[in-house]
């Protein structure tokens, strides 16, 4: 845990011991890094779209009707496309009050149970997200604004992002199950 400004980017966890899981983790990490870069660009674009909207409305009395949906859609993409990257670096908020109090083996079991429960929850959320996407696609659902963009766009980003998060959690859980104990790895 860091309480200051990190100058260098975090390297992430050590590669898993299992070669297949390590290769899949490396491939997913490359995809996650690409999505992180695209998400950074989308955040800048969102700021520009909202700034343009305010300037055009205030100075030129020319309101826009598309900026809200465009901004929200980009923010949905940013939110869901970055979750797997954050999970890879174990950057999600966690309560570690008991971690220091538990014996090492008990803490390892606790971490495994948390990873497994998170994987199962995210798998369910992923399935529901794909169902929302399918409904929006088949029914031709749109937003209620005059711009009326199709709702399958944000639902597809949500479903794809949750799929990546579930895969990341699954790979981390499998790595935890197949990795050698720390005492054997150091030898």
UniProtKB/TrEMBL annotation:
Membrane spanning residue stretches: 34-55, 70-88, 108-127, 152-171
Molecular functions per Gene Ontology: transmembrane transporter activity
One GO process term, biological-process aspect: C4-dicarboxylate transport
GO CC terms in record: plasma membrane
Native species: Duganella alba
Top-level taxon of origin: Bacteria
Coiled coil feature spans: none
Protein name per the record: TRAP transporter small permease protein
């Amino acid at each position: 845990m860091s309480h200051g400004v990190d100058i260098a980017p975090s390297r992430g966890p050590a590669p898993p011991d299992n070669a297949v899981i390590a290769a899949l983790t490396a491939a997913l990490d490359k995809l996650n890094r690409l999505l992180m870069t695209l998400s950074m660009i989308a955040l800048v674009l969102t700021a520009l779209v909202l700034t343009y909207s305010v300037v055009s409305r205030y100075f030129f009395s020319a309101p826009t009707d598309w900026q809200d949906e465009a901004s929200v859609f980009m923010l949905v993409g940013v939110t869901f496309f970055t979750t797997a990257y954050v999970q890879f670096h174990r950057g999600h908020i966690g309560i570690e009050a008991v971690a220091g109090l538990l014996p090492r083996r008990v803490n390892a079991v606790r971490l495994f149970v948390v990873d497994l429960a998170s994987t199962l929850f995210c798998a369910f959320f992923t399935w529901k997200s794909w169902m929302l996407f399918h409904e929006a696609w088949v029914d031709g659902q749109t937003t209620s604004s005059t711009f009326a963009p199709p709702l399958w766009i944000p639902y597809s980003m949500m479903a794809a992002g949750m799929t990546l998060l579930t895969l990341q959690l699954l790979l981390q859980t499998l790595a935890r199950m197949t990795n050698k104990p720390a005492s054997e790895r150091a030898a």
